[in-house]
From TrEMBL:
Boundaries of every Tryptophan synthase beta chain-like PALP domain copy: 15-303
Record-annotated membrane-spanning stretches: none
Keywords per UniProt: Pyridoxal phosphate
Protein name: Pyridoxal-phosphate dependent enzyme
Organism, scientific name: Marinifilum caeruleilacunae
Cofactor entry: pyridoxal 5'-phosphate
Pfam families cross-referenced by the UniProt entry: PALP
Amino acid sequence: MIITKQHLLDTHERISDYIHRTPVFTSSLINEIVGTEIYFKCENFQKMGAFKMRGATNAILQLSNTEKEFGVATHSSGNFAQALALAAKLQGIKAYVVMPSNAPEIKKAAVKGYGGEVIECEPNLQARETTLNEVVNKTGAVFLHPYNDYYVIQGQGTAAMELIEDYADLDCIFAPVGGGGLLSGTALAAKHFSPNTKVIAGEPMGADDAWQSFQKGEIVPQTNPNTIADGLLTSLGDKTFPIIRDYVEDILRVEEEEIISAMRLIYERMKLVVEPSSAVALAALIKEKEKYQNQKIGVILSGGNVQLSKLPF
């Protein structure tokens, strides 16, 4: 599927009643540290606390009435789980969410709070997929993939669309990358609405399958990821990767201490609650700040669903 400018415009109109148009914040002190003008798109203020509400809503709104009767299902360690549960609740349909047993308790509780049914499994991809298949076979629910789905990608792209509408002359947009839904959507938004704006990804060194895939030109599966950025543990999909390969300028890897340092900077200087995955994009920009001096940079803060009792600083 080729995602066009019109697809993104239609998506934004379709989901606008169900999402927040999130604010864009700046910090003169962080600008001084980095040596550039940064515009933070605050998806931590999105409904359910992350950008994934956009894609989940768009995917559900594409279902037929017959499909909606049986509900929706997914597997997710956190934010898409919450997004699907809330988006389903707003449409009056059932959501079944397979979550690994080691997913943050705050995220499991949120899914249940939104009316979703949590089915726990062993914390590996095979267990997630096997359990999901059992749920789908038993309930007839429609499986919606957390990121490797064109409707989800279109939804995620609306965050960058809004940022570009507010600040039309950005030199770059930085976003984190896990499965690639946000990054591929951001790249398409830039391509269609601000073609001179480059899209750069930040990725943890301990979960760098996207960087490896980008270098090799084909998908390199994630193996034994180890990072505090628990939202970025998944492999790229066959729908997200080609978009990233064709339209993303670069993927920059960051160490754990760089992620924690960027996260702390956001807390201390901007008074914003963000999860570690959100800080990865800023960490990447800080690491390569010499390259981006005096530019106008958008940074997507992807979410704020963090377990406050387990802050890394």
